[in-house]
Every structure is written in C-alpha cells, then in structure tokens.
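Batch job 17 of 40 flagged for manual review because the log was empty.
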Amino acid sequence: MKKYLFSLFVLTASVSFAVTINNGFLGVEVDGDGGVGSVVYNELPGSNNVSMVGVKLHYENAIHDTAYIQEPEKTYNLNQGVMFTGYGRDTISNFYVYSVSYLGTNSCMEQALVYTMRTSIPAVKFNYVVDSQIKQTKTNDNVTFNAENKALMFEEDSIYLGVVAKLNNDKTTEYTYGARNQIFNELDGGLPYTTKEQNYEDVAGAISWASSALDGTPVTVRTKIILAKSDPEIQSMTTFADNTFVHVPNSIMIEIKNAKFTQLFTKANKDKIKLKGSVNITEYGTALDNLNNLDVSVLIGDYIAFSPADRALKVKEKKIVYKIKDVKSVRKLIIKTKKKKGNKYLDFTFSASKTDIDGATSLSALSNSGKDIAIKLPVTIVLTGNNSNDTEKGGQVWIIPASVNMVYKKKKDTKATGKLQK
C-alpha cells in the first residue's frame, strides 16, 4: 500500500506544480520530467503559445506519459542563462527520466532528457509532441516540416514556433501533423505516420524515431523549442552544438562493480542497499579535476537518496563525502577522482541502511518468489555546477545513468536479497 500511495502523490504533484524559467525573450513553464506546460514569447506578452509539449513513449500497445517527482528539482540562475533540473517516471514505473531545461540568451529553450528503465522492452517508440496555440487560438495555425533540419514548425501571423529533437544523437526520421485528436489517436495506436495534411482546427504535431528494442542501455533525448518572427530565424537555431552543457558518458564507460540489497517486507526501516561503480571521465578534460562547486544527486528508481539541496559533509579537490542520518535512513556517498593508465575516473560508493527501499527495487511481498530472478535497478547520479563564477563547471551537468542488471532471491513473503548479475 505504501508504494501505491506514493505513486498517487507523485501523479498529483505533477498536475499541481511546475516552475517558470525566464530570460527576457521566453518564459517557459517546465516540470521536473521535462514536460512543458506553457511557452510565452516576448513578442506575444501574456500569451501561452502551446497547450502541451513533451516526450511521450509508446510501448506495450499504449502511450505512456511521465509524472515528475518534486524533491530533486532545482533552479539555477546563471550568468549565461537559467537552468532547471528535475526527475520523473512514467506512470507504471518502468522508465525514469532526469531532465535539464536550459534558457540561454536567445529565444530558444534546450532540454536534455536521460532515460533509464526497469525492464527490457522489445519495442518502444519515442515521440516528441507539440499542441500549438501560437496566439491562443485553435485556428489559423499553419504547420510545415523542414526536411533538411528535421524541424517541425507552426506559424500564425508571422510568429513562428519550431521544435527539433535528437535521440542518441540521431535526428528524427518520422513526423506528422494535423488535427489534435487525429495526432493523439495515431500516437496511442502506435501507428506509422502517414497523414501529412494542413488542418487549421486545433493543430498539433509530432516528430519521432522508429521503434526499437531497449535492453537497459540509457537513452538520451535532446530537444529545442524555438520562437522567432521568421522561418530563417527558426532554421538558424535548429543545430545542436557539440559542446553541450549536459554530459552523459557512453554506457561502456560506466562500470558497476558491486550492487546488493536486503529488503524486509514485514518491518519498516530495516532495509539496506549498496552500490559501487566507476566512470571514465577522460573526455571531460580538466572540468572535474576539482570537485568543488557541485550539487550531487543520487536517484534509484523512486528512492531519492541525495538531492541538490543536500550539503556535503566534506569537499576536497578529489573527494566529496555525504552522510545524512534522518528519520528515513542512514545514507552515505563517497565520490573520488583518480588517474589510471593515462585515463581519469570518477569512482562512487553509495550505501543506505535503516531504510525502506521498495521505491528503489519495486519489489513487495507479492513479487515472484524464487532464486536468481532478473531485476534492473534504475540508477542516476548527477553532478551539477552550481557556481556561475566557476568557469569550467558553472551551469554544466554530468549525468551518470545505469539500469543495473541484478538478480534477487525471495523464498517467503518476508524478505528479498539482491546482488549484481555476473
């Protein structure tokens, strides 16, 4: 019952709360999972130019939306722009997403969304969906697709709204637009996009990628929402810079060395969990040579171990130590950097005891019993540069995602133990 009550809270929170980031050109209402509730362009003061923008997943014969978890959210006001970070999951707890939304000094909002998952999926389709209301009208919106830049663009009376996205560095190959109900019916059915027609009554559209299997490897979606007064202005901002402010290492560079847990279903605050891993950070140059000026988050499924608001117990040039004891657990995190054979590594060790980890494992007394039952643990560790005066780290985000392959053993309805799958 505890798990389902928490899920209800998350869904309620996702409807009730959002944050608005503003740079003078744009004001964007954004949720922790990357969903966009409104976009206000300074050429249209007071107008909401969209009804909805965000990624929707199609798998297991249905469309899945995400709800955000409020606690890990934080807004960063930086010299070069405004940044908002957050965390969410889909409504059946399979996919988890860490989101970074960034407004620089132009009329464009960039997002990076990093997905981890609990189970392997034989076919999943990522869709980036827009329901436009350029001048808060349901009529008169024209819509086109720029094949060269892969940009979907809506226009009304010389105000243009464009969206472009990449999945694991690949731009979209599919798109659709038309009446809102038509688009959402297509998405819900997982149908191939065949209708490309103008429809001036409540226009919506989507760009997407072909369905593919996911075996636990994290997925990164980069997006842009662009407002301008001309088509050429929109197209000039559709390129994704190579020197992104969000850094996600390749999955082969993340090594989970140890993972284990003990979960007691009949006793509160008696569980424990431990993770140990290493990440090759050579590609980041000298940025993480000094670990000062970083916010750290550790997220394991629904289990929020550390959030950006937590303060480190000890910070040295090459080592950060967190230790928190409260009513829900005793948690400790050690992050260290080291050099080995010409490469640089970031090592991390996390442990928690006297806690409840059902949000991390998603197991309960009703889960399957047996030995060596496969389970994935969605883990995300995030380092965020929180100081604008730190020229190498300020406004930069390093996301370390993994869907950790584990096995668990459960003989009775009282206890489960898990370990890293060898």
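Reviewer: the log was empty due to a logging misconfiguration, but the result itself is present. The two ends are 33 Å apart (CA to CA). Unflagging and moving on to job 18.
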